[in-house]
Amino acid sequence: MAGDAVTERGNWGSKMAFIFAASGSAIGLGSIWRFPLYVGRHGGAVFVLTYIIAVIFIGFTVMLAELAIGRHTQSNPVGAYKFIKPNSQWKLLGYLGVVTGVFILSYYSVIAGWAAGYLYKTVIGAFRHLGAMGGAETWATSDRIFKKFAADPLQMIICLFVIIFLTSFVISRGVKSGIERWSKILMPFLFALIVFLAIRALTLPGAGKGLAFFLNPDFSKMTPAVILNAVGQAFFSLSLGMGTMLTYGSYISKKDNLVTSAGWVCFSTTLIAVLAGFIIFPTLFATPGLSPETFEAETGLMFQVLPITISKLPGGYVFGILFFILLLIAALTSTISMLEVPTAFLVDERKWSRKKAAVIIGIVAFFFGIPAALSNGGVKILTKWNLMVRMDQVFGTIALAVGALLISIFVAYVWKAKNAAGEIMLGNTSFRIRPVWMFCIRFVAPVTILIVLVIIVYGLF
Ligand code: TRP
Fold it and tell me: Which domains, and CATH codes, for the chain?
C-alpha cells in the first residue's frame, strides 16, 4: 500500500521545490504577525533570544524527526504512526494533529483575512493621511482604523471566507500544481521587500530605542511564560507538532538531504521573523506616545504599526500594496499546508477524493473560524472571552507542544532514534551531527517541552 501510494500522492519536483514549499509553509503570519506580538508581550529581547535557542535545539530536532517519519512511511500522520507501530494507540497522535490543524486553520484564516482586508484598504488609500501626521495622532489614527475594521462582523466574515475558499481551491488541485507553484515564485520577493522596509524603519529618528528593546536582553524579564511561549512560537513558526512537516516529508525523495533541507527552512523562517522585528519595533518606538505598556495587550500589532512604516516611504502607496499582496501569499502558503494534513488523512485513510476532502474541511474550518472572527470587537461576549487569543494559546501553543513532545518520544523510544537516523542517512551518508541530534531528540527536546508543559498546567491552577 505504501509503495503505490507514493505515485498517487505525488512528489516534489526537486529538493529545491521541497525547501520552497516547506519554507512557504513555515514563513507566514507566524513570523510576521505572531512573532513581534509575542516579543512585545514577553519582554522584548529575552524572548527573541529564547526563541532562537528553541529553534536551534528543539525546532530543528523535531523538524528532522517529522521529516524522517514522513519520508519513511510515505504517509499522512495517522497512517505514519500505524505503519511504524501497528495496532497501537500512537495513531491517536496522528488524530491530534489532524484536529489541531483544522482549529489552527480556522483562526489563522481570520488573521490572513486581515491581510486581505488591509490590501484592499491600502488600494483605496485608507492610510494616505498617516504620512502627513505627526506626534501621537499617527498611532491613534492607525489604531482606530484597525479596531474599526476588526470589529466589523460582515467584513470579518467575508475576509475569512475568501481565505478559506482560496486555500481549499489550491489544495483540491493537488500537491504539485498547487503548493509548489504558489511557493516557488514569490518567496524571494517577500524577502526583498521585508529587508527594504526594515532598512526604512531602522533609519527613522528614534529607532534606536526600538532596536534596544528588540536586541538588548533584560534578563530580569525572563520568566517561565517567556520560555513556554518562545518554545511554542518555535513550533508554530516552523509548522511543527501537528504533522505538517511529516506530511510534506512524505513527498520528499529518498535521495534528498533532510538535514540541510531542515536547516534551510529553520534559517529562512527565523531570518524573516527577525527582520519583521526590525520593522515593527523601531517604528513603534519612533512613533510618539507609545511604550511597551501601550501595545502589550494588542492583537493586531503588526497591522497597527506597518501602515505607519509604509507611510514614511516615498512611494509608500505602491510599497504598501506590494507588502500586503506578499503577506497574503505568505499566509496562503501556510494555510495551504495546514489544510494538507487533514486532506491527506482523508484521502489516504478514508479514500475520499481530494476535492471532497478539501471542500468539506474548508467548510468546517470556516464555521470554527466565525466565532474567532467576531472576537475582536464584533460580538461583545466573544470579545470579552478573548476567544481568538485563547484559541491561539490552546491550539497554537499547547496542542503543538503536546504534539511535539509525543513526536519526539515516539521517534526516540518507539521507532528508536537510531532507526530514524538510518532514514535520515539515506540522503546524507555522513550525517555528521548525528550524535547531537540523537541527544537532542532523546533528552533535550522531550525534557524541555515536558517542563514547559508542567509550567503551564501549574500556571493554570
Ligand atoms: N508556520 C506557519 C506560520 O508561521 C503556520 C503554520 C502552517 C503552522 N502550518 C502549520 C503552524 C502547522 C502550526 C502547525 O505562519
Answer: 15-460 (1.20.1740)
> From ligand 1's centre to the CA of 139, what distance in Å?
29
Please tell me the predicted confidence (pLDDT) of residue 132.
83
Q: Compute, in angstroms, the gap from residue 26 CA to the centroid of ligand 1.
A: 6
Instruction: Please tell me the residue having the least CA distance from ligand 1 atom 14.
Output: 239
Question: What per-residue confidence (pLDDT) applies to 2?
Answer: 36
Which pLDDT value is given to residue 324? 95
Closest protein CA for atom 6 of ligand 1: 239
Lowest mean pLDDT among 75-79, 135-139, 395-399: 135-139
- Ligand 1, residue 30: give the atom nearest the CA: 4
377 touches 150 (CB < 8 A): yes
392, pLDDT greater than 90: yes
438 within 8 A of 266, measured Cβ to Cβ: no
Q: How does pLDDT run across 18-67, given as a tens digit for each residue?
A: 888 889 899 999 999 999 999 999 999 999 999 999 999 999 999 999 99
Average pLDDT in the 146-167 region?
97
Question: Hey, which of 33, 244, 332, 341 would you mutate to test ligand 1's pocket, going by the most ligand atoms within 8 Å of its Cβ?
Answer: 244
114 CA → ligand 1 middle, Å: 17
Residue 350 neighbours by CB under 8 Å, 6+ apart: none
- pLDDT tens for 407-448 read 999 999 999 999 999 999 998 888 999 999 999 999 999 999
Entry pTM:
0.94
